[in-house]
Write a structure and sequence with these properties.
By secondary structure, this protein is an alpha+beta fold. It is built from 2 helices and 7 strands. The chain folds into 2 domains: 1-109; 112-173, Head domain of nucleotide exchange factor GrpE (Nucleotide Exchange Factor Grpe, Chain A, domain 2, Roll), CATH 2.30.22.10. The termini are far apart.
């Protein structure tokens, strides 16, 4: 069987058909490209809006905390005024009031003091020294600085002195 050569008319028709398919494919390509550009622009707008919303939320949270701390600042100023007038009783009362207000404000924000029940927990305690004592070895015998949690995160570990049992004091490494 021999292959026949297409006529000019057949070639022209086939070329017209292919041009039509090419034009159709280019139109679809342009449509998809426009859709992709719109989607990319929508995503960029969403990203910017989310960043603005997050910044706004952070600013409102800071504003709320600062508003709650303003009365503490006022009480500190009153305590300092009492100190200038050498009214020690009022100074002590003022400082206690400030400390209580600050603790209450921070507690409302979720701050919790890390308890020490005498047992050392390396996740929430930091051992600074060991000293001889009657307590069992490794027990907490003194708190040097209180530790705090905010939610489930340790903001600052409790700094403690541990018992080394009976013997000489040595710093821990």
């Amino acid at each position: 069987m021999t292959e026949r050569t297409p006529t000019k008319a057949e070639l022209a028709a086939r070329a017209a058909e292919l041009e039509g398919l090419l034009t159709e494919a280019e139109a679809k390509r342009d449509e998809y490209l426009d859709d992709l550009r719109r989607l990319a622009a929508d995503f960029e707008n969403f990203r910017k809006r989310a960043a603005r919303d997050q910044e706004s939320l952070i600013a409102r949270a800071h504003e709320r905390l600062v508003k709650e701390l303003l009365p503490v600042l006022d009480d500190l100023e009153r305590a300092l005024e009492a100190a200038q007038q050498h009214e020690e009783a009022k100074l002590e009362e003022g400082v206690r009031l400030v400390e209580r207000q600050l603790r209450e404000t921070l507690a409302r924000e979720g701050l919790v003091e890390i308890e020490t029940d005498g047992r050392f927990d390396p996740h929430v305690h930091e051992a600074l020294l060991t000293q001889p004592s009657e307590a069992e070895e490794g027990a907490i015998i003194q708190v040097l600085q209180k530790g705090y949690r905010l939610g489930d995160r340790v903001l600052r570990p409790t700094r403690v002195v541990l018992s080394q049992g009976v013997g000489e004091a040595q710093p821990t490494e």
